[in-house]
Amino acid sequence: MLELRLVQGSLLKKVLESIKDLVNDANFDCSSSGFSLQAMDSSHVALVALLLRSEGFEHYRCDRNISMGMNLGNMSKMLKCAGNDDIITIKADDGSDTVTFMFESPTQDKISDFEMKLMDIDSEHLGIPEAEYQSIVTMPSAEFARICKDLSGIGDTVVISVTKEGVKFSTRGDIGTANIVCRQNTTVDKPEEATVINMSEPVSLTFALRYMNSFTKATTLSNTVTISLSSELPVVVEYKIAEMGYIRFYLAPKIEEDDEGETKPEV
Amino acid sequence: MLELRLVQGSLLKKVLESIKDLVNDANFDCSSSGFSLQAMDSSHVALVALLLRSEGFEHYRCDRNISMGMNLGNMSKMLKCAGNDDIITIKADDGSDTVTFMFESPTQDKISDFEMKLMDIDSEHLGIPEAEYQSIVTMPSAEFARICKDLSGIGDTVVISVTKEGVKFSTRGDIGTANIVCRQNTTVDKPEEATVINMSEPVSLTFALRYMNSFTKATTLSNTVTISLSSELPVVVEYKIAEMGYIRFYLAPKIEEDDEGETKPEV
Amino acid sequence: MLELRLVQGSLLKKVLESIKDLVNDANFDCSSSGFSLQAMDSSHVALVALLLRSEGFEHYRCDRNISMGMNLGNMSKMLKCAGNDDIITIKADDGSDTVTFMFESPTQDKISDFEMKLMDIDSEHLGIPEAEYQSIVTMPSAEFARICKDLSGIGDTVVISVTKEGVKFSTRGDIGTANIVCRQNTTVDKPEEATVINMSEPVSLTFALRYMNSFTKATTLSNTVTISLSSELPVVVEYKIAEMGYIRFYLAPKIEEDDEGETKPEV
């Protein structure tokens, strides 16, 4: 028996909107510690990891660990029917092949039950080792989203270069080149407007803008984003979810593109 | 000679937006009592009835009953050119094959005349008998529109079931099932937020969501909608138009679908 | 060496949005007096003339006159990456085949450099003689834009007729005819809401609505528009740009259409 009651139901709506275009089908894993998901995107390039800790739910009952395979497009269609102020409860009976999403309006005048069929999905849970990163940038999530969108009008890849002074985002394409520098800045009115660089070593890595733009759909979940970079590791783009968890996107750097951008002689 | 001056011209704009996708061509009937329309939708399944009583016009002159055939798409194109605060006057000379829409801006600085050709349209006026309905639901029109839209993401038909406690909207489709219950609720801050059930007998009827969604285009005309249901009759979905009339949509229940939804054994 | 620093960078963004659909490639001419452009639209029917006077820039350095050929679509893509509050600096080295747009956020925390390749564009600068116009209409730019848009739902051309009392915009199409009269009105709360007619002689001229609608993309640049008309001359549709210049659109009247509209006997 599973029954998870989330007062701020809009969080779950936003989570689905953040990942449904990246991942088609995925197993949601439910244990006593929380509700989580780990999935590769459909082209097996990027990895998404979601965690909603049990403490974040008003009521959390999960008698035994279960894994529920869901089509995220269909799940999103159902969650879109929840109002932004609705309480959402996820329910499943032991051994059932369906999951029920219950939406309660704040006044309790409107109660909706949406029942969705579960799927069998083969997936192996990847162990993601804890790592030390050479550079960690925390910045306003809307700013990061704007930069990825702007650069994708010029080129296909972004070089992210971190120094003590700031982080530079660069691209080049047929119509020209672009460099955007965000300086470290901690003297701001609101903490979420700060740009903070934690750097042990400067890094410069190249990524496909298509994926970065996809990750920024999670911008609605958090005012800030944290980008962790190391030359030998996939970048981690993390959005915190209120007090209860996070959504993390992992993407390997493009080796060739980086070389090309860095060492190709000017013609 | 016809001359109908409507101070709140936006009402006529909204009426056209409500019905132009449902009905292509229709006769507007003008008599001393009011300006009205009755028309089947283009697939001859739903019926629209509009009434704007003469008392609602600032000036109303209709020397003799006339019926003016109009293409609603073209009429809508012209009314879209009226500002939302404009006064609209409908004018036609006796025997003329055109109608003129005059728009006056509130300051009288901008005066527009749009002249449209009339059409000959065969149509017989159906007598719609007054009927007693088993269940009459009045609810916020935006809520009803939201429910029809949400359910059409899941299935093609909606079962509307009324009991003393409330009204249930259900659907089923390939991805699962949905049930939305709105409870009777009269203790609200504003009267238009109430959900009121007037029931002599419980009913459960099935309708095509496509038409319901089309009817909800009239949501801009009124904060509330009234849904009148009887097992042997078409449903009536009514939106009041200010103090001056109404727009009513009639749709026959789907017999087969209802049976299927109600009695099909679970597999 | 060229370096032009424009504090209100959004003006340049709006200029590009105003003309990029009308003109594909154009030479921007830079001299000590200002930054200007003159170009025919791609079908060689309308002419655009832009002037941004040097006094309007915070810093203006132009060592020698140069003409820089740019693709306006690409330039617009780059300028879209500037924030609305950003300071924009246009930079070019002598003899360089590129131009650089630098965007500085108001807080100086984000600095962007966009470098674009220049093009060789053949163009001859047309001398536009100063002329006396028979009728000059100044009116709210949003009203003019609304009228052009509304009429293009009915017909393809607009007849603009000016008398002492006001200006009339007329069209006719398959579904009917439309006449919109704006009366002279100088008793308004705000000067930019006035409609002012300066007339030495009444005029009535016909223009293609397609071009008029294109010109009204400059509506964001100014609250008012000035339309200068003479029977033997192209109309001038002018939008002032803050204190620093203007954008002017020139379009020749349609001779045949005018005749047809004016003298064709009613059938």
What does this structure look like?
Chains A, B, C: Belongs to the PCNA family. Chains A, B, C: Keywords: DNA replication, DNA-binding, Nucleus. Chains A, B, C: This protein is an auxiliary protein of DNA polymerase delta and is involved in the control of eukaryotic DNA replication by increasing the polymerase's processivity during elongation of the leading strand. Chains A, B, C: It comes from Pyrus ussuriensis x Pyrus communis. 3 copies of one chain form a homotrimer. The radius of gyration of chain A is 20 Å and the shape is elongated. A 9-stranded antiparallel sheet of chain A has the order 6-2-3-4-18-17-16-10-14. In chain A, helix 1 runs antiparallel to helix 2 and helix 3 runs antiparallel to helix 4. Chain A is of the alpha+beta class. The longest helix of chain A is centred in the middle third of the chain and has 12 residues. In chain A, 17% of the residues lie in helices and 43% in strands. The C terminus of chain A is likely disordered. Chain A folds into 2 domains: 116 residues, Proliferating Cell Nuclear Antigen, CATH 3.70.10; 117 residues, Box (Proliferating Cell Nuclear Antigen), CATH 3.70.10. At the A-B interface, helix 2 and strand 9 of A face helix 3 and strand 13 of B.
